Amino acid sequence: MISRPSPFMVILTLGILLVISALFVCTLGATGFTLGKTGSLSLFVIEQIRLPRISLAIITGAALGISGAVMQGLFRNPLADPGLIGVSSGAALGTTVYIVLGSSLGLDTLSRHYPFLHNVMLRWMVPLSGMIGGFCTTGLLYSFARRQEGLSTTLIILTGIAIGSFTAAITGILTFRADDTALRDITFWSLGSLAGANWSGFVILLPFFLTALILIFPLRDILNAFLLGEKDAILLGHPVERFKKMAILGVALATGPVVSFVGVIGFIGVVVPHLVRLVTGPDHRIVLPASALTGALLLLWADTAARLIAPPAEIPVGIITAALGAPAFLWLLTRTQTGSALS
Questions:
Q1: Does residue 1 sit within a domain?
Q2: Is 147 a member of any domain?
Q3: Which residue segment(s) compose the domain that 23 sits in?
């Protein structure tokens, strides 16, 4: 019998590591200093540049990690990730539409005549377009997957694949007709980056993330029941149809806004729940919070590596997570038998 650490110790250890990591990362960067010796410039760098970025990394990693755990539990599929419900592809499409067609729609001309409007559009229209696209594709998936007897998990997967392919095709067409500036913006967004982090963006994302947690954490018992199968969960008296709706809504609220702000960051939603289950086992009462904390830790250090590997340039953090995530995922596949992937 495999000996597992206590849930309390796992959460406590991850929480302490996250706090220590956040404090340590504050001292890393082009402006070097220690926390005990800070001047006015150092304080400005910490308060206005590094802390917003650290906060955004934590909330993004936590959202992707916990969403991946929910998706894998819902579909009982170790390959499931938040992108399965179309939110990432929808966000990519919404962002591309604005970047490529913004000038065609007259938005650039309008913003030039109104300086305040220009600043607002420059900072917020890309993430806002991404959020609209992500929520629209999730709503479309829900409408196609809904049947009279309820939501079908098989249809959710198939519809998600179809919508993802369709939105990717439209995104490709728009990218093909983009000019050099728009093409550079689309490429940079698609690789994922936290370089644009600021307190205003974090304040906007936080309510979405907290709402998602409120929806997701009560699902931990029914996620455990789903390990036995959907029919067994129904026999145990769980409201399965309500659970599916809450799971999809929670994942959309958690991942849609953060993806819209930072771009596509892969592998965290797939790899993190696997790592957590190797240590804690399949109990979602511990898998959900541990996945959130582990995702936050992973993205925090990935973003730190992105800043420090090739200064003064920054490597997009999506490249770092892919470079780390792909080998880790292959290693996990060698450790995990298909029949017991979620156990």
A1: no
A2: yes
A3: 7-342
d(CA 41, CA 340): 53
**pLDDT tens, residue by residue, 160-169:** 889 988 998 9
Beta strands in 62-205 (DSSP E): 146-147, 150-151
* Domain-located, residue 2: no
Q: Tell me how many domains the chain contains.
A: 1
Task: Please determine, for residue 118, whether its predicted confidence score (pLDDT) is greater than 70.
Answer: no
The per-residue pLDDT for 268 is: 92
**What is the structure's pLDDT at 114?**
58
Is the confidence at residue 1, as pLDDT, over 70?
Answer: no
Kindly report the backbone phi and psi dihedral angles of residue 232, in degrees, each rounded to the nearest multiple of 5, phi listed first: -65, -35
Give CA–CA dist 331/196, Å, rounded.
Answer: 33
Q: Average pLDDT for residues 43-55, to the nearest whole number?
A: 87
Q: CB of 223 within 8 A of CB of 70?
A: yes
Query: What's 178's domain CATH number?
Result: 1.10.3470.10
pLDDT digits (tens, 9 = 90+) for 130-186: 888 888 998 888 888 887 667 777 888 888 889 988 998 999 898 888 888 888 888
**Read out DSSP for 248-271?**
HHHHHHHHHHHHHHH----SHHHH
Q: What is the DSSP letter of 37?
A: B
180 assigned to some structural domain: yes
Question: For the chain, how many helices (H) and strands (E)?
Answer: 15, 2
